[in-house]
Design goal:
The strands form 2 sheets. A 7-stranded antiparallel β-sheet has the order 1-7-6-5-4-3-2. It has a 6-stranded antiparallel β-sheet with strand order 8-13-12-11-10-9, sandwiched between helices. By secondary structure, it is α+β, with helices and mostly antiparallel strands. The longest helix has 27 residues. It is globular, with a radius of gyration of 19 Å. The chain folds into 2 domains: 142 residues, Alpha-D-Glucose-1,6-Bisphosphate, Chain A, domain 4; 103 residues, START domain (Alpha-D-Glucose-1,6-Bisphosphate, Chain A, domain 4), CATH 3.30.530.20.
Length: 263
């Protein structure tokens, strides 16, 4: 017998971004737009349409669109039970709602609410805590995308490497090895140049200008069991991006795996 899901979980965020409601809608409610600042996304762009977010090799989240009111409101549900390998009867769907509110001066506020019901298990609150801290940096991506690359299609580069130890030590090592500075600093990161746009908790976002324009997110997080993960995710916007990714992804992978992290 399974427990009825009756323990509520809720996350709310809002971000002010440049652009018209139509430009913002393209970024949050199309596969091409979502893939340019979030995760690689497949979406049938209509109410009832299917949805899939790719979260890495052999991992993803499936869902479907339940609310579709362009350019104001998007709602979709994901199966977080399947994502976590849990009993589907024990959890409600995970529902995310995006609201776009136009402001004067050519900006919009995007309000995002994610909610669901579980049974109160310890892993559930951990899932929501991690989801909250994981979501926040993506809103910096969204703001940067709409500021500099609105409507453009991204080619993504993503690599991660696991190391023994804690996330703080790994982040400090990664940050120093790449020479990541404070917000506003001009940096060169393994042959790419750009400006530090945002410094978060164990995460830095760089707007790249050369050799390929785009956004580069560098991050580290704890995996548990005495391990931590270092990662790089880039969204690149040019005709040369695919060739650049083919060349640079293996080089980034080798570099991340070769980091010497103090014990």
């Amino acid at each position: 017998m399974s427990t009825t899901p009756n323990v509520p979980y809720r996350l709310e965020f809002s971000v002010e971004v440049p652009g018209t409601p139509e430009q913002v809608w393209h970024a949050i409610a199309t596969a091409r737009g979502m893939s340019a600042w979030f995760l690689p996304t497949e979406m049938e762009e209509r109410e009832g349409g299917s949805l899939h977010f790719t979260m890495g090799p052999e991992m993803g989240s499936d869902g479907h669109v339940t609310g579709w009111d362009p350019p104001r409101r998007l709602v979709y549900e994901e199966d977080w039970a399947a994502l976590m390998g849990k009993d589907p009867d024990a959890l409600s769907p995970l529902t995310s709602e995006f609201l776009v509110v136009a402001r004067s001066g050519g900006t919009c506020v995007v309000r995002v609410t994610s909610s669901g019901f579980g049974t109160g298990a310890a892993w559930e609150s951990e899932f929501w805590d991690e989801m909250g801290s994981g979501w926040i940096p993506f809103f910096d991506n969204l703001r940067l995308y709409l500021s500099h690359f609105p409507g453009q299609e991204a080619t993504q580069l993503e690599v991660t490497a696991s190391h023994p130890g804690d996330a703080e030590t790994l982040w400090s090592t990664l940050h120093d090895a790449l020479g990541l500075g404070d917000e506003g600093a001009m940096v060169e990161v393994r042959g790419a140049t750009g400006t530090v746009e945002r410094v978060g908790e164990r995460q830095t976002l760089v707007r790249l200008t050369a050799p390929v324009p785009g956004m580069l997110s560098v991050f580290a997080f704890g995996e548990g069991d005495g391990k931590a993960m270092a990662g790089v995710r880039a969204y690149l916007f040019s005709a040369d991006a695919a060739d650049y990714v083919r060349r640079e992804e293996p080089a980034w992978q080798a570099w991340l795996q070769g980091l010497i992290v103090p014990a």
